[in-house]
Amino acid sequence: MLMRLIGEECDLVQNELKENYKRDDWKAKSPNFWDCSLWSLAKAIVEVFSDKIELDESEKTRKIKDLRNLLFHSNFVELMNKLGIEPIGLQIFPAKELKRKNIKETILSLEKNGVLRQVEIRANEAIAILKKILLSLAI
C-alpha cells in the first residue's frame, strides 16, 4: 500500500515506471503505478530515491516482497532458506500435499521456529523505509 501511495504521489517514480516499461522490462507488466507489479514499483522507487536511502535499505525494500510472496503462497521451505532457518518438519512438503491438520501444524511450526517473527521484523523495517521516503515527498 505504501509503495502504491509513493507511486501515486511521485511523478519521478511514475516516469521511471514508464521508462522501465518502454525498455521492455518483462516484470513491469504495466507502466502505471496502480497495476504494475510490485517488483517493478519497488525497483522504480529504489532507483528514484537512491540518494535518500542507504544501500541496505534499498535491498530490504526490494526483498520484503519476495518474503511476503513465499509466505502467502505457502512456499515455506524457500521462505526458511531465505531467512537462513533450516527447514524441518512437515513444511518440507508442498502445502498442496498436506492435509488440513498438517497445514495447521506446519504454520505453528513456523511460529515456533521464529519464521513469522523474522518476516514481521523485515516487514516493519521495509515499512519504516517506505514511510521515510513518503515523508520526504512532503518536504
List its traits.
single chain; 139 residues; mainly alpha; 2 domains; 7 helices
The total count of helices amounts to: 7
Low-confidence segments, given as residue ranges, are none
Order of secondary-structure elements: HHHHHHH
Q: What portion of residues is helical?
A: 55-70%
Query: What is the count of β-strands?
Result: 0
Write down the overall mean pLDDT: 83
The gyration radius over C-alpha positions equals 17 Å
| Ends distance | 21 Å
Task: Categorize the overall geometry.
Answer: elongated
**SS class:** mainly alpha
Largest sheet: number of strands, sense, barrel closure: none
Query: What is the number of domains?
Result: 2
Beta-strand fraction estimate? under 5%
Detail the topology: elements first, then pairings.
Elements lengths: L1 H8 L1 H12 L15 H11 L6 H18 L3 H8 L16 H13 L2 H24 L1
Helix pairs in contact: 1-3, 1-7, 2-3, 3-4, 4-7
Describe this structure in words.
The protein is mainly alpha-helical and 139 residues long. It folds into two domains: 1-48, no CATH class; 53-139, no CATH class. The protein is 68% helix and 0% strand. It contains seven helices and no strands. The protein has helices spanning 2-9, 11-22, 38-48, 55-72, 76-83, 100-112, 115-138. The longest helix has 24 residues, at 115-138. The mean pLDDT is 83.
Structure summary:
With 139 residues, the protein is mainly alpha-helical. The protein is built from seven helices and no strands.
